[in-house]
Amino acid sequence: MKKYVCTVCWWIYDEAKGDPDNGIAPGTKFEDLPADYVCPVCGAGKDEFEVYEGWLLIIVRENNKQYLTMKAMWGNIES
User: What is 7-52 written as a DSSP string?
Assistant: First the structure.
């Protein structure tokens, strides 16, 4: 089973878990979600989701300070 990440707010739809709070049973494939399904966190439509492939750790440097952040990965990662 796959996972999909909302590219707007980073919420992850896990096919194995479904979205029971919104009437989506565990095991429901992303492509079988209703056409009007929206992200339960931000309201983005299905077209704003991409296949989730894990997390990417990023070091951000700003004003001579370093910050460590995590970002969801999807699609092809290019350097």
Answer: TTT--EEETTT-BGGGTB-TT--GGGS-TT-B-TTT--BGGGEEEE
Phi–psi pair at 6, nearest 5 degrees = -75, 120
Cα(42)–Cα(23) distance, rounded to whole angstroms?
17
- The structure's pTM equals 0.71
- Write down the pLDDT at residue 58: 60
CA distance 42 to 18: 17
Torsion sign, CA atoms 58, 50, 6, 14:
negative
**CA–CA gap between residue 69 and residue 47 (Å, rounded):** 25
